[in-house]
Each structure stands twice: as structure tokens, then as C-alpha cells.
Amino acid sequence: GENVEQHPSTLSVQEGDSAVIKCTYSDSASNYFPWYKQELGKGPQLIIDIRSNVGEKKDQRIAVTLNKTAKHFSLHITETQPEDSAVYFCAASIWGSQGNLIFGKGTKLSVKP
Amino acid sequence: DSGVTQTPKHLITATGQRVTLRCSPRSGDLSVYWYQQSLDQGLQFLIQYYNGEERAKGNILERFSAQQFPDLHSELNLSSLELGDSALYFCASSVVGTLNEKLFFGSGTQLSVL
To answer: Cα-Cα-Cα-Cα dihedral of A45, A62, A57, A26, to 10°?
Structure first.
């Protein structure tokens, strides 16, 4: 089945710096890649997603890139702010599994003021 | 607020017991998903329902079962609980439960088995 690897597991940056989180997936048929942000005591919140027919997508300070050939995708956060501190999860869909997601293990991002 | 409601927020019980977790999806969503989150396993997909019918099954133990009712709320039943079942259980919903659909998660139920 699909397997999603996420790196790094922890990331600490200074406020204003950029942060990059990388994920790789195993199933070449996967074609949907969302990113979720989970704050303490809350459920995962969808922040951006990308489909396999697109190489890059931006939403204000957040961008996601996808390399289908290499089977990896990345989350880029620019001009980080303390409120960006959270655990970020990447995920990939399993082809033909009706919308189920396989998640990476998460990256704990800490933004220091 | 995602619009997905989960109750209770916390549940403390003993080994061997049975508990029921409840989820109300976002208004208009027909599909409900259950996920288990633990420190060692991360977010694991358990089961999905669409309009009352089971649609997909993931890593759900035989001691666990779920159902979706006519009003679209869902319940996850966990029985013969073991210490290792302690985890955060999340419910998510989507409009029709098709591939590549956005999932919206509730705040979870923290289960502690003592």
C-alpha cells in the first residue's frame, strides 16, 4: 500500500525565515496531496492541497510543490510568524480508495520570535 | 471551527471496557471518516462511511466497529479496550466521499485506557 515519509520531524526557525517540509510517497498512482496544520488540542486543519496535474500552488505565504517523477512534494512557508508554530502533516490519497488519506508522521515547527 | 463536532472531548476508562465516540459531520456532508492518532503510529485511517453505508476500511481492529445513522452522525464503538488503544480519535467529513475530496476534521476525542 501507499507509504508517506515526512522530513524533518522537528524544525526550528527564526521569525521571518522560511521553512520547508518535505514528503515522499510510494504509490505512483496517488494524485492528491493535502497539507494539514494541527495546533495543540485541535484537529488537523487543511491549509493547502495540490493535485497531480499541477506542479506548484501558492496561497499567500504558503506554497506547495510537487515532483511526480521523483514522487515527492514539499511545503514552503515564507516569512514565518510565531502563530505558524504547530505540527504539519502531509498526506497522499490512495488511488481508488474513495478519498482515504495516508498521512506522514508530522513535522513539529517552532518559530522563535 | 471546522463544523465537525465530536463528543466527548475526553474519555477515561479501564481495560476490558467498551466506549462509544460520537461525531456529527459538517452540515451537508454525507461522508464520515474515523482516524486514530497515536505518538508512534501517527494518523491512521480506520473506516469511512457514506450516507449510512460503509465505503472503505483501513487499519481498524475487529474489536472496533462504527456506523453512520440516517441523520448522518456516526459512532465509533471500541470494545475490550486495551492499554494500547489509548489515543486521539478524530472524525472527519467530506461532501460525498470521493477521491481527492477535502477532509475537514473535528477536534477529536482523547481516550485514556487505564
So the answer is: -60
> Does position A99 have pLDDT exceeding 60, yes or no?
no
Contact between B105 and B4 (Cβ < 8 Å): yes
Q: Do B33 and A95 touch (CB under 8 A)?
A: no
The 10s digit of each residue's pLDDT in B17-67 is 999 999 999 999 999 999 999 988 789 989 999 999 998 888 899 999 999
What is the bridge-based pairing of β-strands B42-50 and A19-25? unpaired
User: Which stretches within chain A are classed as H helix?
Assistant: none
CA distance A50 to B100: 10
| Contact at CB, A100 and B43, closer than 8 angstroms | no
How many whole angstroms separate alpha carbon B49 and alpha carbon B72? 9
